[in-house]
Amino acid sequence: MARTSQPTRLPADIYDAAVAASAISSRSAAQQIAHWARIGRELEMSPQVNHRAINHVLVGAGSYDALSEQEQAVVRQEWTERATALRGELNYAAGFTAAGESYSELDADGSVVVHPARD
Prior knowledge:
The chain is mainly alpha-helical and about 120 residues long. The chain is about 55% helix and about 5% strand. Pfam families: ParD_like. InterPro entries: ParD-like (IPR021831).
């Protein structure tokens, strides 16, 4: 009997990250998520990775330097994914506009563009 895909609900940030990563890795979003799941499965089964120590570092209760190289790689990947998700949520223009403040930025040519405060 052939196996079929089962529908699964994912958090939006995971799906969005998979879409972004899929463009780089030449996989579909579903293939990227499956790839990450396989990596996670292997890591959890690996005797060289202490998940409790990794979690302690991720919550700020442990030392990164005390981790093995493999564990540090897991932590760095998690930090990268968290930072990417946080950057994706930033909208400085909306924040400045809502606060009634002006702001400036560089355009594609490197020229300064000033956005005046709106009343």
